[in-house]
């Protein structure tokens, strides 16, 4: 659900950014490390900057989602182990006191 919501927000912002900057006629030169891009519209620089930022935000949220799912899986496994331990302790306690599960069921039904 979170990813769908994020995708809708990103689409909305892309449309808004496109409409808002469509009329941008300014051109600039971009120097990126050893590369030079000359006579580029400001719109494209802003668009790709936003696109790159959205990608990294999505990447971070996907990483967090994986971490949370792994943590939940680990905790569910621990809960199952604890339930099994409780079951074994109850069974051991009943055997120590001499009460068997069949005898107890018969007492309850009478």
TrEMBL record:
It comes from candidate division WOR-3 bacterium. Residues 65-99 form a coiled coil. Keywords: Cell membrane, Coiled coil, Membrane, Transmembrane, Transmembrane helix. It comes from the Bacteria. Residues 27-86 form the Lipopolysaccharide assembly protein A domain. GO terms for cellular component: plasma membrane. This is LapA family protein. The keyword Cell inner membrane does not apply. The chain crosses the membrane at residues 7-25, 40-63. InterPro entries: LapA_dom (IPR010445).
């Amino acid at each position: 659900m979170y990813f769908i919501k994020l995708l809708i927000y990103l689409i909305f912002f892309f449309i808004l950014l496109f409409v808002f900057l469509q009329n941008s006629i300014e051109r600039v030169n971009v120097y990126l490390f050893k590369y030079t891009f000359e006579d580029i519209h400001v719109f494209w620089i802003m668009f790709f900057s936003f696109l790159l930022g959205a990608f990294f935000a999505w990447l971070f949220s996907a990483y967090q989602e994986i971490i949370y799912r792994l943590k939940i899986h680990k905790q569910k496994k621990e809960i199952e182990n604890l339930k099994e331990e409780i079951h074994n302790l109850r069974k051991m306690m009943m055997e120590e006191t001499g009460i068997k599960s069949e005898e107890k069921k018969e007492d309850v039904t009478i």
